[in-house]
Amino acid sequence: MSDLSNYRRSYEKSELLENTIPEDPINLFNRWFHEVEDFGGSGEVNAMTVSTIGLDGFPKSRVVLLKKFSEEGFIFYTNYNSEKGKAIEANPHVCLSFFWQEMERQVIIKGIAQKTSEIISDNYFDSRPDGSKLGAIVSNQSEVIPSRDFLEENLKKLETDYEGKSIPRPENWGGYIVTPLQVEFWQGRANRLHDRIRYTGQSDFSWKIERLSS
């Protein structure tokens, strides 16, 4: 057994106070996102964990890349027939989370996922490198396959088939937009007295702001 009880650190890089935050969470998310980006930490600032409730009743989380965010929501792309796609089809309640270790920050977003328009999916797919486009076609995401060679051989065949041709977006691949219902911001503080601010959407499209105990 590995004893991790002594793994601890003091968080002292920033603070999150009510008198310095905007009235809506997207503005604060935008500020934090670009502060982390400007800080120049390692890794991909747009990497997020997407949690769904699977068809087997268990929650499952995986890291994907956020590709766009606005007042309407948070967009990522995937195979609609993947395990996560099937889970979202059955239960669109999802959770997104970001952990930016360099700035000692975390954001947790509860929301409803739905497919983006085909135009949005087409435009993003067209912007991808050809290798990524072919990868989306060749991979039946989450399905059992016999070997790595199986994927690579199928990719080589597709590369030959589409040489010099445009590569269309497969119908089973596209975007999801997650409309936020609740957004929680966590800023690490000293002595485990962390700052936690929660925004909850209201029926009049305003946001209720509350401080949570650490």
From TrEMBL:
InterPro entries: Pyridox_Oxase, Pyridox_Oxase_CS, Pyridox_Oxase_N, Pyridoxamine_oxidase_dimer_C, Split_barrel_FMN-bd. Residues 44-157 form the Pyridoxamine 5'-phosphate oxidase N-terminal domain. Keywords: Flavoprotein, FMN, Oxidoreductase, Pyridoxine biosynthesis. GO terms for molecular function: pyridoxamine phosphate oxidase activity. Pathway: Cofactor metabolism; pyridoxal 5'-phosphate salvage; pyridoxal 5'-phosphate from pyridoxamine 5'-phosphate: step 1/1; Cofactor metabolism; pyridoxal 5'-phosphate salvage; pyridoxal 5'-phosphate from pyridoxine 5'-phosphate: step 1/1. Binds 1 FMN per subunit. Residues 173-213 form the Pyridoxine 5'-phosphate oxidase dimerisation C-terminal domain. It catalyses: pyridoxamine 5'-phosphate + O2 + H2O = pyridoxal 5'-phosphate + H2O2 + NH4(+); pyridoxine 5'-phosphate + O2 = pyridoxal 5'-phosphate + H2O2. The keyword Flavoprotein applies. FMN binds at R62, V63, V64, L65, L66, K67, Y77, T78, K84, Q106, Q141, S142, W186, R196. Its EC number is 1.4.3.5. The keyword Oxidoreductase applies. Signal peptide: none annotated. HAMAP family: PdxH (MF_01629). Belongs to the pyridoxamine 5'-phosphate oxidase family. Catalyzes the oxidation of either pyridoxine 5'-phosphate (PNP) or pyridoxamine 5'-phosphate (PMP) into pyridoxal 5'-phosphate (PLP). This is Pyridoxine/pyridoxamine 5'-phosphate oxidase. It comes from Flavobacterium ginsenosidimutans.
